[in-house]
Write a structure and sequence with these properties.
Elements: E1 5-7, E2 15-20, E3 25-30, E4 71-74, E5 79-82, E6 85-86, H1 87-93, H2 96-105, H3 111-122, H4 129-136, H5 144-158, H6 168-194, H7 207-216, H8 227-239, H9 247-256, H10 262-273, H11 281-292, H12 298-306, H13 325-341, H14 346-358, H15 362-366, H16 374-383, H17 391-412
Parallel strand pairs: 1-3
Antiparallel strand pairs: 2-3, 4-5, 5-6
Helix pairs in contact: 2-8, 2-17, 3-6, 5-6, 5-10, 6-7, 6-17, 7-8, 8-13, 8-17, 9-10, 9-17, 10-17, 11-16, 13-16
The structure holds acetyl coenzyme *A.
């Protein structure tokens, strides 16, 4: 304990006492919700000119960036709840649009509230023809996630009034438009990759049913979705609706904190979701299962993972150190969907055996690596006849309601300011500028490192 004490806030019953061994001073900082405020550390200084103590937390592994009442996760126990309702109950009794309402408004809707919400979403599913024209301009083999990032960003130019981020009507319309149009944009990008004509929304169908319609419809006058597939997709949508402060949601909040319009903020979320460590993992899972090829190859594959040659995609999670509850629910639907489409997919056997062996292996158990939501979702998408490149796009559709809810909450939060982390500067300082003719450098001209051989490279 140091010699001098300073308490920032008197009357706080829970506090943390920190002793700075450089000076011998002690500081008492309040604890609220088992958390201390990083800014309270700023008073810890060696001398009055010091900037003050900061926390260093690359990748925010132990830093809460906001207060939120939307989604609760207990990663050790494998619990996921939205606005207090367990995910299991929502998947059993609710629909995706009802869950979207719950996330956005904080309460389950009454019948008239839900009817109005569904009507509003259903009647905003069309996109401006110029957005369609913009999508048509992409290369035939453009990744649909790249197309989606651009299309969502472009929407901000079609709805410039969304810049009035405090206007309740504009906030509501942005929520409706994004939730309504995301399936249309996703389906258009899919049809684009196949060179097929885009299919306009059918307002007689459910949210999931209409999405299947826009993906699948060919020459039939009216597309009729298989109710089992429609329900499985709706459950997948519920499971992906929100997941508190994950990478893409943090991106939405961070970009949104600049007070940009919500379309631009959500476009940042779509970009973050694109990455293989986030929403891109389900695509990688399927590629991995295909590469493993047969159950007999699993031991060799797992040895490679343990030798750190690669990762077991669809395993591990920053927050869940137990079975991801979403993976448990999805797993139940895999067989149902395969039955509905009459497929006997050999990858299911590989996935099941892979999971069994990994859960029995000390390498994975000691690191608390369990299947995450992406381990099985790809198998359902595949059974629906959706190519791997589309998987992350389908993740983006339901996550839109989570992004919007988090954006609404963030913009209402008086404690939030523009996101602006600090850094620990590690470079040189106060160097004298050296004229180019006086610089001595290595003989070798710096340039990009040699590329690994690839099968084909595309032009610019
Ligand atoms: N395969 C093999 N080893 C793994 C895996 C994996 N999938 N995931 C983590 N590990 C190992 C790490 O190498 C590390 O080992 P070490 O302590 O011996 O160095 C240990 O487990 C801890 O892993 P971290 O990387 O520190 O965990 P982090 O929380 O940073 O990463 C992440 C979480 C990115 C999800 C990671 O588990 C991963 O890359 N998984 C595969 C990709 C994936 O499935 N992503 C989907 C996530 S869910 C979602 O976004 C919807």
């Amino acid at each position: 304990m140091g010699t001098e004490e300073s308490s920032i806030e008197s009357g706080v019953s829970e506090t943390l006492t920190i002793t700075d061994n450089r000076t011998g001073k002690s500081y008492e900082v309040p604890i609220t919700d088992e958390t201390i405020r990083a800014i309270d550390l700023r008073q810890i200084k060696v001398n009055p000119d010091d900037f003050g103590m900061m926390t260093y937390d690359p990748a925010y592994t132990n830093t809460a960036s906001c207060r939120s009442a939307i989604t609760y996760i207990d990663g050790d126990k494998g619990i996921l709840q939205h606005r207090g309702y367990p995910i299991e109950a929502l998947c059993e009794h609710s629909s995706y649009l009802e869950v979207a309402y719950l996330l956005v408004f904080g309460e389950l809707p009454t019948t008239p509230q839900l009817e109005r919400w569904v009507w509003d979403v259903t009647h905003h599913t069309f996109v401006h023809e110029d957005i369609k024209a913009m999508l048509e301009g992409f290369r035939y083999d453009a990744h649909p996630m790249g197309m989606l990032v651009s299309a969502v960003g472009a929407m901000s130019t079609f709805y410039p009034d969304a810049k009035m981020i405090e206007d309740p009507e504009e906030r509501y319309m942005a929520a409706i438009r994004m939730i309504a149009k995301m399936p249309t944009l996703a389906a258009f990008s899919y049809r684009h990759s196949l060179g097929l004509p885009y299919i306009y929304p059918d307002n007689d169908l459910s949210y999931a049913g209409n999405f299947l319609n826009m993906l699948r419809k060919m020459t039939e006058v009216k597309f009729e979705p298989d109710p089992r597939l429609e329900r499985a997709l709706d459950v997948l949508f519920i499971l992906h609706a929100d997941h508190e402060q994950n990478c893409s949601t943090s991106a939405v909040r961070s970009v949104g904190s600049s007070q940009v319009d919500p379309y631009s903020a959500v476009a940042a979320g779509v970009a973050a979701l694109y990455g293989p460590l986030h929403g891109g993992a389900n695509e990688q899972v399927l590629r991995m299962l295909r590469r493993i090829e047969t159950v007999d190859n699993i031991p060799d594959f797992l040895n490679g993972v343990k030798a750190r040659e690669e990762k077991l995609m669809g395993f591990g999670h920053r927050v869940y150190k137990n079975y991801d509850p979403r993976a448990r629910i999805i797993k139940k639907h895999v067989d149902e969907v395969l039955d509905a489409v009459g497929l006997d997919n050999p990858l299911v056997e590989i996935a099941t055996e892979l999971e069994k062996r990994a859960l029995d292996d000390e390498f994975f158990t000691s690191r608390k690596l369990y299947p995450n939501v992406d381990f099985y979702s790809g198998l359902i998408y595949e059974a629906l006849g959706i190519p791997a490149a589309m998987f992350t796009v389908i993740f983006a559709i339901p996550r839109t309601s989570g992004w919007i809810s988090q954006w609404l909450e963030m913009t209402d939060d008086s404690e939030q300011k523009i996101a602006r982390p600090r850094q620990i500067y590690t470079g040189d300082r106060d160097l004298d500028y050296v004229p180019i003719e006086d610089r001595n450098g290595p003989e070798k001209i710096a340039g990009p490192p040699a590329r690994r051989p690839v099968k084909s490279r595309r032009g610019a």
